[in-house]
């Protein structure tokens, strides 16, 4: 990256002047004229190139990227082995449509996903291009294979923006407003958010009321088990605020699903691919999904989504479900290179760096009155800001201020949920980069608090 970096550490931020600079500003002005206003940009970053955990903008400013393209570039920006795989495959065969023809990378990637899927059971895979498409596949397969119409999903979860996925999504009102009616048969239950328990319980003494609600209330009213195909859940809630459920929740949820022949479908789109320090977030809870959705981190930025199911469940006939571009050879090769890197050491690094940061973050609620809660697994960490630790009133304005101040200091973070700062760096980050992020956020929290 840039050659203006004499005496500047290439692995840490360096700003050449106030941001945005003139080139970034010009891009942003053009963008404002032609790009859909539905895109929600938090700060004026115009990215030009990336390497590892660093992003250089159009004016040569270097930022430390704690977003990873929204949890996508698991192996960092432009990892040489991913770039090599993409270039090699692009020169040989870019597209053939696996829906109608055969090619080896499609099979190799499905074999690999089946081999690393939770549970060690036979799996089949259907490919698409995005998280939403992976969820659509899960939704259609759940209904098709059970012959049942209803789906139980959770408040706060985000599953994508196509109409089926959007019907499951219950994250922010703006995402659904004006787009109804949604898919019939989708029923939402409270997510196990122990910091803000919908049932007023404390984690230590709760009796998993959020599963009881499904069993004692939904099953007896609007979602009888024999009409309910599946429960869809993010094992760690992403867009909704980086929320980690207690293990006993999953123990109960799995029991409920098994007792009633209801499929457990996990959305690993954001929390999967090693981000939490295990390949799949559901592995932290020993929950083996019948079907799961993967995308984002799977191919380090090349578009790819996958619906992975118990082999016996994927019993739909030719023509029932497919996607022209899904699993194109270039994305498949990028995914194979990505998974190899994750298995070599990046999943382990995510666990290590996550634990390192969490050790430092743990006392932030005691040190900063505006920090209500810190939680996370691996490199999926949420810092929830509140106006008052006792009332837990969310503080979205303070959160947004911290996010903006961090940008002005060279650190890229984003919000999630009502007032949480999310940390989702690439899995290649180092201790020094973690230290920079922690120190910068501490400065910003002090400034926001003042
Ligand atoms: C958990 C989860 N599921 C699904 C999606 C949708 O993915 P995509 O934007 O690739 O359609 C997202 C995107 O943020 C997500 O976080």
Plain-language structure description:
This protein has 450 residues and is of the alpha/beta class. The chain folds into two domains: 64 residues, no CATH class; 260 residues, Type I PLP-dependent aspartate aminotransferase-like (Major domain) (Aspartate Aminotransferase, domain 2), CATH 3.40.640. The protein has 13 helices and 16 strands. It has a seven-stranded mixed beta sheet, sandwiched between helices. Helix 3 runs antiparallel to helix 10. The mean pLDDT is 97. It binds pyridoxal-5'-phosphate. Pyridoxal-5'-phosphate binds next to helix 5. The site of pyridoxal-5'-phosphate (PLP) has 14 residues, from helix 5.
How do the strands and helices of this protein lay out in sequence?
Elements: H1 22-34, E1 47-51, E2 54-57, E3 62-65, H2 68-71, H3 80-90, H4 104-116, E4 123-128, H5 131-146, E5 150-154, H6 163-168, H7 173-176, E6 186-189, H8 209-218, E7 228-233, H9 247-259, E8 263-267, E9 291-294, E10 305-310, H10 329-361, H11 364-367, E11 371-377, E12 380-388, E13 393-394, H12 396-408, E14 411-412, E15 414-416, E16 420-423, H13 431-449
Helix pairs in contact: 3-10, 4-10, 10-13, 12-13
Bound molecules: pyridoxal-5'-phosphate (PLP).
Pyridoxal-5'-phosphate binds at residues 130-132, 135, 158-160, 234, 238-239, 267, 269-270, 295.
